[in-house]
């Protein structure tokens, strides 16, 4: 799915990205005659992130969001597909180009408790990337660390403290300062506030927004909870079982979602329910099927309250529902055989008719 934002060039362009993990793939498995099992964690993604924008990537746990972020930073090798960063093919970079990419693209992880080395001081954590990239001498690095601590809302005199002397929110601020040390252009924020108390989440989100404006940053913001991405994202892509099912502006996704999965995520009530007018609304039943054997056709059909026979075999290419809003669902195609095929049994029960 792609969309052009006037005036902004794509910084990250993803085409047909796939990342499969393999199980039962050891020599012993082969000796025992076991076939390798592929886990299709990311299975053909197309999207763009424009300079200066925040793309929210949402979906339930296990949909492949972290794998996407890690693969497009080349922290994991892709199985197939292409990623272009500032026009350059990420998978064909020379060592020198890759080093420069590693300076320009950073990541902030979810858990500020396990992602910071407990034996290193805040200053050492923040200056480590500068050391690795051989930037500045020790005194200048320390100066930069003090400056960064202050920019993320901590105090420069906390530089020699260890992670266990900080609260969760403060630790995440240290993680953010570390990500900023190399003056990057792009940051993957992988559930950066999910481990924090709700009261602290808003402060960290505000900080991320301020830093984006101050340093012209481009963000991929990963979250399982749509409400978290609402205020920080310009556009949102919704992911289900390794695929993007809908992309649109924040307004489109929240005001007129076009894919039943997006609607169900927004609803986020784990059972069928009714809106204030007594109409049935889309809700999520059951768990995400295993990416070892994803359903044929539309991967969401096994849980979709609108699924028809047609959805078991086929899924439409991304349909532009509104300008810049794309959804992969037959419900957005008026004259498709979808409308003439039988509803699936679970859909009849869940949707209560059209
Ligand atoms: N190293 C790995 N080896 C095998 N399978 C993996 C590996 N990492 C992830 N997976 C599987 O790939 C799928 C996608 O995982 P991923 O962590 O990318 O999803 P996610 O949407 O980020 O979920 P979460 O929010 O729980 O991290 C899951 O089924 C997961 O079990």
UniProtKB/TrEMBL annotation:
The keyword Magnesium does not apply. It holds the Pfam family oligo_HPY. Residues 273-283 have a biased composition (Basic and acidic residues). Residues 12-266 form the ABC transporter domain. GO terms for biological process: peptide transport; transmembrane transport. GO terms for molecular function: ATP binding; ATP hydrolysis activity. Residues 272-294 are annotated as: Disordered. Keywords: ATP-binding, Nucleotide-binding, Transport. The keyword Nucleotide-binding applies. Gene3D superfamilies: P-loop containing nucleotide triphosphate hydrolases. NCBIfam families: oligo_HPY (TIGR01727). Belongs to the ABC transporter superfamily. This is ATP-binding cassette domain-containing protein. It comes from Halobellus ruber.
């Amino acid at each position: 799915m792609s969309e052009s934002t006037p005036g902004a060039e794509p910084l990250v362009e993803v085409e047909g990205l796939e990342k499969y993990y393999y199980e039962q793939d050891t020599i012993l498995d082969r000796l025992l005659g076991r076939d390798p099992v592929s886990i299709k964690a990311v299975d053909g993604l197309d999207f763009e992130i424009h300079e200066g924008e925040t793309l929210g990537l949402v979906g339930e746990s296990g949909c492949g969001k972290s794998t996407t972020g890690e693969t497009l930073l080349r922290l994991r090798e892709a199985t197939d597909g292409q990623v272009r960063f500032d026009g350059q093919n990420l998978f064909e970079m020379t060592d020198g180009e890759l080093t420069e990419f590693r300076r320009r693209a950073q990541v902030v992880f979810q858990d500020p408790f396990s992602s910071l080395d407990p034996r290193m001081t805040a200053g050492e954590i923040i200056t480590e990337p500068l050391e690795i990239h051989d930037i500045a001498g020790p005194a200048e690095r320390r100066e930069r660390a003090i400056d960064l601590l202050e920019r993320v809302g901590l105090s420069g005199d906390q530089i020699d403290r260890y992670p266990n002397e900080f609260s969760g929110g403060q630790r995440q601020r240290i993680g953010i300062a570390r990500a900023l040390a190399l003056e990057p252009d792009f940051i993957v924020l992988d559930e950066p506030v999910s481990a924090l108390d709700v009261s602290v989440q808003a402060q960290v989100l505000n900080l991320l927004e301020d830093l984006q404006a101050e340093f012209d940053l481009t963000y991929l913001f990963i979250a399982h909870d749509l409400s978290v991405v609402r205020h920080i994202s310009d556009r949102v892509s919704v992911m289900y079982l390794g695929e993007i099912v809908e992309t649109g502006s924040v307004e489109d996704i929240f005001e007129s979602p076009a894919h039943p999965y997006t609607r169900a995520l927004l609803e986020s009530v784990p059972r069928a329910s009714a809106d204030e007018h007594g109409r049935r609304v889309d809700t999520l039943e059951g768990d995400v099927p295993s990416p070892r054997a994803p359903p044929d056709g539309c991967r969401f059909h096994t849980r979709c309250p609108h699924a028809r026979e047609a959805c078991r075999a086929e899924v439409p290419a991304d349909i532009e529902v509104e300008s810049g809003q794309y959804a992969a669902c037959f419900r957005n195609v008026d004259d498709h055989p979808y409308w003439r095929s039988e509803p699936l049994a679970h859909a009849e029960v869940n949707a209560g008719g059209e």
